[in-house]
């Protein structure tokens, strides 16, 4: 019996350490998310670049100082139900789960809030584990932060260029050499095309396919842009 107890002690210690690490990791978003009501966060990819000596360009910009056209284009391109859901789009997520178990290609079903959760607290490589963690984090973020603040954080931490450009200010300056307010529709839509893959899609030097995608984004934003009204009570769009 004494011998068995000796063998169990290392296992218990290891399990205790694992439980402690998991508890700390779980506590990080629980503690930091309320702070982000007033504190402007740094994303995990930005932090990785800082720690590895790579350049980071990011200038925070309040959401009120960002073009309404750009806000509408981002919402309609990335998450058309943003103002209506509680952090996750249940219909899109259900379809994603069904496609996964049926062996069909999956799109990700990521809402803007889920992307904020990933950029702040998780990693970028696609996996079922990461997606499973995104869901409760997104619900918690949506509970704690306002829609306006969630989009403001997203617009300021999203990767917007291939050389460490984070946030819409760096993206607009790298693409067009301009500030991100009062953007015309064509430039607002071209900026949004970079979000899925800022290392390949360059708004300042768009090819025919990028221009085609930008045209689709502009058309949706012009027609349905008022769906983004939750992020700006004074939203005024030239639709």
Automatic annotation (TrEMBL):
Membrane topology: Single-pass membrane protein
Entry annotated with the keyword Methyltransferase: no
Record pathway: Cell wall biogenesis; peptidoglycan biosynthesis
Enzyme Commission number(s): 2.4.99.28
Alphabetical list of Pfam families matching this protein: Transgly
Cellular compartment(s): Cell inner membrane
Domain Glycosyl transferase family intervals: 54-201
Top EC group: transferase
InterPro entries (UniProt xref): Glyco_trans_51, Lysozyme-like_dom_sf, PBP_transglycosylase, Pep_trsgly
Described purpose of this protein according to its UniProt entry: Peptidoglycan polymerase that catalyzes glycan chain elongation from lipid-linked precursors.
Entry's family note: Belongs to the glycosyltransferase 51 family.
Protein name in the entry: Biosynthetic peptidoglycan transglycosylase
Species lineage: Bacteria, Pseudomonadati, Pseudomonadota, Alphaproteobacteria, Hyphomicrobiales
């Amino acid at each position: 019996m004494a011998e068995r107890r000796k063998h169990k002690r290392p296992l218990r210690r290891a399990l205790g350490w694992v439980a402690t690490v998991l508890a700390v990791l779980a506590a990080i978003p629980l503690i930091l998310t309320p702070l982000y009501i007033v504190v402007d966060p740094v994303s995990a990819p930005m932090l990785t670049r800082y720690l590895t000596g790579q350049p980071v360009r990011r200038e925070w910009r309040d959401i009120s100082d960002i073009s309404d056209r750009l806000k509408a284009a981002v919402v309609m391109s990335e998450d058309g139900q943003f103002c209506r859901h509680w952090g996750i789009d249940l219909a899109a997520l259900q379809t994603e789960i069904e496609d996964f178990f049926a062996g069909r290609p999956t799109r990700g079903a990521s809402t803007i809030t889920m992307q904020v959760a990933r950029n702040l607290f998780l990693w970028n490589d696609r996996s079922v584990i990461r997606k499973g963690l995104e869901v409760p984090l997104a619900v918690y973020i949506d509970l704690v932060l306002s829609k306006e603040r969630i989009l403001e954080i997203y617009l300021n931490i999203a990767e917007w260029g291939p050389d460490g450009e984070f946030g819409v200010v760096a993206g607009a300056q790298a693409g067009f050499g301009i500030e991100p307010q009062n953007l015309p529709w064509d430039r607002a839509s071209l900026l949004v095309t970079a979000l899925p893959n800022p290392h390949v899609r360059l708004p300042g030097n768009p090819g025919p396919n990028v221009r085609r995608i930008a045209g689709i984004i502009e058309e949706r934003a012009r027609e349905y842009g008022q769906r983004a009204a939750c992020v700006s009570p004074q939203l005024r769009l030239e639709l």
